[in-house]
Amino acid sequence: MMPALSPNTQAILLLTAPLIAGRNPSSPELLSPGEYKRLARHLREIQRQPADLVLPDATDLLHACQPVIDHARLQRLLGRGFLLSQAIERWQARAIWVISRADAAYPRRFKMRLREDAPAVIYGCGDISLLELGGLAVVGSRHVDDSLIDHTMAVGRMTAQAGRVLVSGGAKGVDQAAMRGALVAGGKVCGVLADSLEKTVMNREHRNLLLDRQLVLISPYDPSAGFNVGNAMQRNKLIYALADASLVVSSDLNKGGTWAGAIEQLDKLKFVPVYVRSEGVLSAGLDALRGRGALLWPNSPGVDAFESVFNAITLAPMSPQSDLTLDFSNEPSDVSPTPQACPKSLEVVEKPSEAVSPPVAAGKSSNSLPTYVQPPVDVTNSDGDVAKITSTPADTLFAAVRELIQILLKAPMKEAEVAAVLEVSNVQAKVWLQRLLEEGLIEKQKQPAGYVIRHSSLFSSDQAAIPHLEKSGRKSSDLQRC
């Protein structure tokens, strides 16, 4: 089912998309990504949405945007309604859907990892839900020999056998080999294209895979856009943002898109662990990536060893959604709740600070760690039994967050994602999740991978959170979108 084109998305397309097949998308009339980012921030500040710009009485709003974008320029762009209707008709004929940051279906990984740099619009074809499953990103050079093609296809097959999604860029060479290996083995694949989405989705081989929900192809660029080096470089971060781990099969040294994307990931973004190929003839590029912190890929891993690559700790797990994501969505969502995107107002429902800062014993300095025992705490297990336990500070803190974690785990989350929302270390999140597992309140599932609340242990915590949300100025219905 194709996502409906929302009014906000239509407005964003009018402001940023070329809308004419073959036209240079860098036309000076269109808003650049940086200009749209500033406009979006301004609209949020004055509590308006992109869709408000095309309302019949939008004249005052256009003038209110003058400090950011010239209102006459906005009028010219927003007056392209006929061109937009033609473009929509063309996209729909090719089963291409379009979503924007204002839509609930927009990939949450882009919002949470890229924040303001998440593409304003995403074009795609295929099963959009595949974008939420994580997986293994495989990248590499376009020009490689047959032995590397075979090796890469084997990685794709292993990814499929392990039940993981394969994420790649769709370019010739390593990208296509990895995707082909996974698809032939019956796996799921996300292709993040830098160009020619329209042409690619019309390929007969791809059409069947798209219809069978094995494949989703997306691009942040106009579906008819041709190849552009800058676009190819910029889309690299999108590949890493959709994944849980990454493998660089081949790379030149100090040049090329593969090198630039891997270095950006290692030095700056740090979304996922970066591995480099460890079999066959290595290269100066891979050796250099190792020197910058990349890990060695396990030699000929079985499924168990393959799963271990997803457990490496990254330095920058997904961040909670904030206002800086420029999300204008006010509409009910038909997609699964996204607990990682909960606003900070939900992160302290039970005031954990009272447990974090116990009183200091008399005669002790504030730097000492006094013995501090809380009164007995009631703990309810999955069978409804209540027991009183004498708690330590750690128990008290756990009591403060246990129900919040259960609210978050209505949709599967991994340790790093829970840690990101609660702003604690991965180790601390793991300890809390293990305690909930032992109490039988949550379970760990493989597909999609992550911890999730057991249906028999649903709490009334949602209702407890609602008053807090209302005090913070949010509607209680927002809880379902968190």
UniProtKB/TrEMBL annotation:
Region: Disordered, residue numbers: 326-373
GO biological process, one term: DNA-mediated transformation
Domain of life of the organism encoding this protein: Bacteria
Domain Smf/DprA SLOG: from-to ranges: 98-273
Polar residues bias (residue ranges): 326-339
Pfam families (UniProt xref): DNA_processg_A (PF02481)
InterPro entries documented for this protein: DprA, DrpA_SLOG
Similarity annotation: Belongs to the DprA/Smf family.
The protein, known as: DNA-processing protein DprA
Provenance organism: Chitinimonas arctica
